[in-house]
Amino acid sequence: AYKNLIIEGDNFDALRLLRSTHANRVDVIYIDPPYNKGKKDWVYNDSFVRETDRYRHSMWLEYMYQRLTLARDLLSPTGSIF
What we know:
Blueprint: H1 11-22, E1 26-29, H2 56-74, E2 75-81
């Protein structure tokens, strides 16, 4: 059996699904979230919220909070998130 697993895809969906099978068992999680810089030459859409949105910072923080909460549930006692 393989000990390592790499998942490429939407991190929210992946973390949510892994929680049912890997809770408290993951040693390292690497998540590359959008930084909401609005750059058009990035590989993925980096405009999570509109620049003119009054609550853009709160929306981005909520976006990250949801993912980090799921990631925390997956981590082993000595695990790390990057």
